[in-house]
Amino acid sequence: MASINLIDAFQEFKDTENLDRPTLMKVVEDVFKTLLRKKYGSDENFDVIVNAEKGDLEIIRRRMIVEDGEVNDPLAEISYSEAVKIEPDFEVGEELYEEVDMLDFGRRAILAAKQTLASRINDLKKNILVKKYSDRIGEIISADVHQVWKKEVLLMDEEGNELILPKSEQIPQDFFRKGETVRAVVARVDLKNNSPVIILSRTSPLFLAKLLEIEVPEIFDGLISIKKIVREPGERAKVAVESYDDRIDPVGACVGMKGSRIHGIVRELKNENIDVINYTNNIQLLIQRSLTPAKISFMNIDSEKKQADVYLKADQVSLAIGRRGVNIKLASELTGYTLDVFREDEEKTDEFDIDLEEFSDEIEPWVIEAFKKVGCDTARSVLNLSNDELERRTDLEKETIEEVRQILQAEFDNE
């Protein structure tokens, strides 16, 4: 019927792939049965037929033909004299099928039905989107950058759904351009103004766990288990792994031949240092492994207070603490123990030092190597010498030395 073309809301959504077609048809049927109940008081003798391919529908009214004067229920029955006006060949006892003209409902009722239909279908789409991504929480997805804002990045998945990557869930070194593809883990599904908001994350430990699962078949197959991951996004991460097969070295499997497996993950995480360690129930051994790359001399553990005093040689203290205290912070999170670092045979260190390797993202490797060749392998060992002395010993340019000293001094000033 021509008037059915007014149902633009159905036409608009009929080709939407992620809507279940039977469910969509049921929604349309419900909306128009509500319209029938409002007009006739009942929808029992009406059939709403939805044509999903054409995007239109028909409403058929069924009534039994009875003798004139014997109509008891006008909704279910029609007199013979009225029936033959519609079709002369009808006889008493037959069922009359009549198409209802949408215009009989009135334009105001039709408009209300269209608005209700559009609202119901939008709700349906929202529910499908919520379910889809609620089931994918913890999974890695790829999406294209659609818009970059100061506090968040808007991405679009392959179906055109909007995804949000907040600044707080981005690695500090992340830089996005419109159109590029970004990988992230589905963190959660929020509701904002009754609309679903899909939140992604690149800083979550789950992101690193899933990257490892992709790169390391033994993890995917369940031969190696990730016991715990702690991260300082963009700087350092520690991963405790355990093997269920004595023939498999879990650390070696995760790192790969010459670091082949871990390198791709490091690049994805913007050169985040990843320490993979063997998990153990022996807390002393776990603490020792968690403080890698530092080598511990000995330690005193208080299991009740979950605290450990760790003693190291002087040249290992800076490695244990790490730049901005990141290494010891992550070790504490991984083990669940409060760790205090002491120099071997000395009181707790009054001032910490930082290994030069920790500045590899700001200082060229060959410059660091030049300092190390003359015995300056920590930040304070460089700062304790004058510019002239460093220039004489290392043969580095004066400008280079001054730049390095500024970087190192700024680190201590920040502390």
From TrEMBL:
Is the keyword 4Fe-4S assigned to this protein?
no
Q: Gene3D superfamilies annotated for this entry?
A: 3.30.300.20, Nucleic acid-binding proteins, NusA, N-terminal domain
The record's listing under Pfam families reads: KH_NusA_1st, KH_NusA_2nd, NusA_N
List each copy of the NusA-like second KH domain by range: 284-348
Cite the Transcription factor NusA N-terminal domain residue spans from the record.
5-126
Subcellular localization, as worded in the UniProt entry: Cytoplasm
Quaternary structure and interacting proteins, as annotated: Monomer. Binds directly to the core enzyme of the DNA-dependent RNA polymerase and to nascent RNA.
Role of this protein: Participates in both transcription termination and antitermination.
NCBIfam families from the xrefs?
A: NusA (TIGR01953)
* Protein name per Swiss-Prot or TrEMBL: Transcription termination/antitermination protein NusA
Supply the source organism for this entry: Hydrotalea sandarakina
Q: What is the lineage of its organism?
A: Bacteria, Pseudomonadati, Bacteroidota, Chitinophagia, Chitinophagales
Q: What is this protein's gene name?
A: nusA
